[in-house]
Amino acid sequence: MISSEEFWNKNSQKYIAKPIKDKNTYNKKLKITEDLLSSTDRILEVGCGSGETAIYHAKNVKHVLATDISAAMVQHGIEKSKQAGLRNIDFKQVAIEDLLEEAERFDAILALNVLHLVNDVEASLKIIYELLHDNGLFVSSTPLLLEVNPILKILISIMQKLNLAPPVSMLSNKGFISLLENVGFKIEMTWKSSKESMFIVAYKNGKKFAEF
Ligand SMILES: C[S@@+](CC[C@H](N)C(=O)[O-])C[C@H]1O[C@@H](n2cnc3c(N)ncnc32)[C@H](O)[C@@H]1O
């Protein structure tokens, strides 16, 4: 089977050119996230793809580190952020699995449409947890493919054999929430944003109380 890195490098132009399927849902996710961020936050996005979301949030926070396993995706993000004249965003080619080498810890981490693509979801969640400051915010949107149709599993494995699909993890709603809780996240909000996707707002060790 083709590796994730190879698959996403090969398919980056196609993915980037594809219009967002449901613009209203995408905008709602941006707005929910934006309302939870503050101007002093240093944030990390894993699996940032084209960089569109990272670039959007750069105006709301102090600094964004946008990361992706694919060099082609990262290159696209760098060009787009230059065009936008942004100075508070950096892009880096790195897989989630290798992120613990980052010395920095973050106020918020975003993982949008990527956690179903890692080999070991729990291990990746542990890395994300470790990379957050206490009370740090974790926003994820994850296709939970076991919720869709059992036949999908067979279809995906055929496509993988033909190098037409990347490696994926088959997750259920209940299973994914258990993984988050096992790792230690306190879930603040869940929203079934589409037939297959779950948008979740969670905190490391719970939400920080407002300071008076
Ligand atoms: C479906 S795209 C989502 C991109 C973007 N987050 C979005 O919502 O449009 C998945 C992205 O995750 C990246 N990716 C896949 N496996 C990864 C991994 N193990 N670590 C980091 N990025 C990964 C791919 O290169 C791709 O850019």
UniProtKB/TrEMBL annotation:
Entry keyword annotation includes Methyltransferase: yes
Gene Ontology BP annotations: methylation
Protein keywords: Methyltransferase, Transferase
Taxonomy, superkingdom: Bacteria
GO molecular function, one term: methyltransferase activity
Name of the protein this chain belongs to: Class I SAM-dependent methyltransferase
Organism: Vibrio ostreae
